[in-house]
Amino acid sequence: MCIRDRDYIRDNTSGSDYLEFHERRFAEHLSLFSYLCEHFSPLSRVLDISTMPYTTGIMKYYHPGLSLVTIDLPEEMGGPPLSRFEELEVEEHYAVDLDSLDWNVFDKEVSRKGKFDVIFAGEVIEHLRIDFLEVVEFCLACLRPGGIAVITTPNFLSGWKLDRLIQGLNPQQRFKDYKNIAGGYHYREYTMKELDNIARDAGAEVIARVYSDSLMEDHLHKTEETQYHFRENVVFVFSNEKVSIW
């Protein structure tokens, strides 16, 4: 990313430390999103689930004409202020707690103005206390035929987590550090195989399964380049029908 882009992202995140730590992931998300914009040519409607401090801003920054619908926590629960979405001119924003929704009703509300080409949920499902099956079914209901859902989430079988387990340590975070941060804790992390199994149980067509090194520390890149399934993140892509995006 050039310095202009770094400055923009820093201004729209919770601070420079967050940017520095997640820079590879920011770049990966943007690269994938830009590729999908070219694939759908032009990309018309996108649903961004849990916008984090940056994803919506980056999408609108590079594609200002995008029709974008967003979902995130209410401000009183730690979500972004509504003024942020007004500034970005998103089509519609839903300030909701994803853990307490009736997803089968919510999908009709979210897609009432039209189905989506792309649904993006970056680092979301590990923060939810619901079955991933519900998320998949929601996405399938909201996608237009041949639309794409992109899920990125930490890999529960990453190398450093397996190493901690071998040492008798727990790689998961302790609850005590997250008493005052709504949605900040990882309630459940996933393996690629179980994401695949759950999505297929919901009737999804799995389009791509990629092990990402976007959160891997520099010194681990060479040692784990042949052990791709131990990388830090997974990128999981599915649709409601068989499509080719590569």
Structure description:
With 246 residues, this protein is an alpha/beta fold. The protein is built from 8 helices and 7 strands; from the N terminus they run ααβαβαβαβαβααββ. The protein has helices at 3-11, 16-40, 55-62, 82-88, 103-110, 132-142, 159-166, 192-201, and strands spanning 45-49, 67-72, 92-95, 116-122, 143-154, 205-212, 233-239. It has a 7-stranded mixed β-sheet, sandwiched between helices. Strand 2, helix 4 and strand 3 (92-95) form a beta-alpha-beta unit. The longest helix has 25 residues, at 16-40. It is globular. Mean pLDDT is 82; it is low at 218-224.
Topology of this protein?
Elements: H1 3-11, H2 16-40, E1 45-49, H3 55-62, E2 67-72, H4 82-88, E3 92-95, H5 103-110, E4 116-122, H6 132-142, E5 143-154, H7 159-166, H8 192-201, E6 205-212, E7 233-239
Parallel strand pairs: 1-2, 1-4, 2-3, 4-5
Antiparallel strand pairs: 5-7, 6-7
The computed structural class is: alpha/beta
- Give the percentage of residues in beta strands: 15-25%
Number of E-type strands: 7
The radius of gyration computed from the alpha-carbon positions, rounded to a whole number of angstroms, is 18 Å
- Mean of the pLDDT scores? 82
Report low-confidence residues grouped into runs of 5 or more: 218-224
The major beta sheet can be summarized as:
7 strands, mixed
Ends apart, CA distance between termini: 23 Å
H/I helix tally:
8
Sequence of secondary-structure elements: HHEHEHEHEHEHHEE
Q: Please state how the strands of the largest beta sheet are arranged side by side.
A: 3-2-1-4-5-7-6
Question: Helix content range of the residues, please?
Answer: 25-40%
Q: Per the principal axes of the C-alpha atoms, what is the gross shape?
A: globular
